[in-house]
Amino acid sequence: MRRAIRRLAQFACLAAIGALVGWFSVAPGYTHRPADLAEVKLSFTHGGIRADCRRRTAEELARLPPQMRRPTECQRTRPTLHLVFRMDEATLLDALLPPSGLSGDGPSRIYRAFPVHAGAHRISLFLRDSDRDTGFDHTFERDIALEPGQNLVIDFSPTGGGFYLR
Fold first, then answer.
1. Phi, psi at residue 18, to the nearest 5°?
2. Angle subtended at Cα 87 by Cα 85 and Cα 89, rounded to the nearest 5 degrees
3. Beta partners for 85?
4. Which of 72, 96, 107, 145 could disulfide-pair with 47, CB 3.0 to 4.6 Å?
5. What's the chain look like in SS3?
6. Distance of alpha carbon 98 from alpha carbon 55, whole angstroms
7. CB neighbours of residue 154 within 10 Å
């Protein structure tokens, strides 16, 4: 008799835990973002252009071992990228992206998500990936139309022509 009561209590506890887990799987409701919003994600990895390169002389090349005889010598570090992201003439991001790596020789990375209202927008992106002080090396401007709930990803490929939308 005592064993039957213990089994019945175990079953009741397990049923209560199962019901609680089942309830939490459907309630309370969670909305990721309001229904009238879309999301623009800016995500890319890019290494800046190494500009401090010089040509080695014939005497310098002769002094080096054969496996190290590169005609140009470049500084190891990469420049810090300057990125500006504007939407409808409002600046959403103006950031300096330092290179990664212990020696500052890796690519710069960014991932940012911007919730925006659905509808027509004008986006502008400006990127400086060299050592210049003013101006930008890559620019992108485009009119877009966002649907409610849409995810628009902006990526960058220097060999593919710069910024592009996915």
1. -60, -40
2. 100
3. 93, 125
4. 107
5. CHHHHHHHHHHHHHHHHHHHHHHHHHCCCCCCCCCCEEEEEEEEEECCCCCCEEECCHHHHHHCCHHHCCCEEECCCCCCEEEEEEECCEEEEEEEECCCCCCCCCCEEEEEEEEEECEEEEEEEEEECCCCCCCCCEEEEEEEEECCCCEEEEEEECCCCEEEEC
6. 27
7. 21
Instruction: Count Cβ atoms within 10 A of the Cβ of residue 74 and give its class: 0-12 exposed, 13-18 middle, 19 or more buried.
Output: exposed
Distance CA 81, CA 42 (A): 14
Looking up tokens 């939490």, which residue turns up?
Answer: 24
Among all chains, which residue has been given the structure tokens 């002769």? 62
Task: Output the CA–CA distances (angstroms, integers) from residue 52 to 32, 109, 128, 135, in the order listed.
Answer: 47, 22, 16, 19
Inform me whether the pLDDT recorded for 120 exceeds 80.
Answer: yes
Phi, psi of 73 (to 5 degrees): -120, 125
d(CA 12, CA 33): 38
* pTM of the predicted structure, to 2 decimals: 0.73
